[in-house]
Amino acid sequence: MNWASGIVVYVILWWLLFFMALPFGVKPPHEAGEEAGPGFDAGAPLRTHLWLKVAATTVIAALLWAVAYWLITSDLISFRGG
After folding, report:
1. Which of 8, 24, 30, 31 has a CA positioned 20 to 30 A from the CA of residue 37?
2. What tens digit of pLDDT does each residue of 23-36 get?
3. Which residue range forms the structural domain that includes residue 25?
């Protein structure tokens, strides 16, 4: 795997994991017993914890990238005919 494909694999993994992590731990105001203030959507979450999700996504994507790198470079799985 060259460096360009490695970056592409990591970016794809990162975005997939980030979008999967977005719904975790968010509650709209009506589930927390509060009311949305004026100008805020009633379904908007109170706290998103985005920095925690970015950090977790970065670590998990790095681990999954390392597994993908190992699988590709070890020729355990090969897409080349032969």
Report:
1. 24
2. 998 888 877 788 87
3. 3-73
